[in-house]
Amino acid sequence: MANVTDPLARSVHGTNPQNLIEYITRQKIYDSLYWKEECFGLSASDVATKASELKALGGSYGGNNKPTRFLCLALKLLQIQPDEGIVEEFLQNEDFKYVRALGAFYLRLTGRPAEIYELIEPLYNDFRKLRFREATGWKITYMDELADELLTSDRYCGIALPHLPRRDVLVSAGYLDGPRRSALGQLIDEQVGGDAEKFLERLAANGNAAAKVALEERRKRRKEAEEKQRQMQEQIRKDAAKYTDRHDLDSERLHRSRDGHTSMSRLGRSDGNSDDRRRCENSAREHSRSNRREENYQGRGYHQQDHGSENYYEEGNQGVNEFRDRDRGQDGNNRTSRPRDNHQNHERRHSSDKKYGSLFKSQRRDNLSENHDKSPSEQENTEKFWNEQRAKLGLKPLQK
Asked: Residue 203 and residue 211: Cα distance in Å, rounded?
């Protein structure tokens, strides 16, 4: 039960506060001697007392990734979840720097973005040294560097920090009141009239390495911002020109469509009005319809094969009229009856056989033509006719 979160603690970023530290690191903290001996049953004031005894910051160290005491106390704060007033007292404590560092780290894990900026930014004015224990050794850091890493980095002490929006985004959204006020603001106003870049140039001329780096960084960011602004303006001009050209083209098309030029251009003509267009379209449709009708009639045998004959069109029109009379029932005697010249039909079949070669069975057509030439009475008197009829009924042929 010593590792359970306080039942009255609220969730942070949608999860248990202790889950803000990775599972493996959390289990190593639970197994450490410092956690079992010194962190059992602590309150917020007890944690502050333990933090005043710290000698260094850090995450995990050694070959077994043993957690530091600073990390154990941070997990204890996540477990008990002290009030916001207690966390602010941690940050405002100027007597014990490690208490202040612990409060800043806890606030960065659990605080709201605007609250984080407002309470951690004053640490930029604290330049006290801090010991930091790395995985393989030690290093010296400062309180202002701690504040800067908490506000700009994604990880600290080997722990993943929650996402923090940029300050300018919060200012534009109204969560913060303007840019951060530097402690050097009064000095800058007195020496260079409030121009921070001139102040940095003066410090860089005096040999300040940090001022040189800051000055180069400012110039680089200004150049990138100008380049981005130039590209944006160029893109806006291109879009405006494209929109203007498209608008002019649409206007021209609309004007031409009203005058009938667009449709006439599709028909291959450059002038004319809507009436001419309709007449051309109707004539084209009528021409295609007549071509299809002519092909259909020619396939049925109404035209002669020799197109050069004088009676070609007359015979074709006669065949068309007969075909229409047959379909409409205007024949009078029989709807399907149609007068034909058998000799002429025979010549047509014979010519088609010559034209298309062996694709047609000429022998069968000759037999059919011979049978067709005979009258029905003559066909009935033949022995072949009655043998065929008896074969259809399944009877034996007649005996001779």
From this structure: 6
